[in-house]
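The record is given unchanged here:
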Amino acid sequence: MTMQAVSVEPVRRAVTVSKPVEDAFRLFTEEIATWWPFPSHSIGGDDTVAAVFSPASGRLYEVHADGTEHDWADILVWEPPHRFVLAWHPNPERRTEVEVQFVPSGDGTRVELEHRGWERLGAVAHEARASYVTGWTLILGLYEDAA
């Protein structure tokens, strides 16, 4: 008997913000700590004080009040101000991929997020994907509010 690879639909979410592409990209990356909900969406919870995109080191990580760092992702592609791609791994054994694009839209920017690669999670793929459907909706809503 042969095993067939299971395909799991990516999570796709988008918002349009009233900022030029450069400003929308900067808010999402350099200013992420101003809007990301650390108490509910981080490794350290209430102890998390920042998140840092570091293209030089190829990392996206959170920083706790005591200065410790915990990786969220490896930066695979860094094309400011139009796009970045992350190897997302809050669970280091299993990595998925998150791509965010910043596309001019009228006087603002359409921010398009795709989270893919769920098949890599094996038996928990569908459950993990379902949690991120609501998670990315919340995250992009908070980003949109901050913009």
In short: The two ends are 53 Å apart (CA to CA).
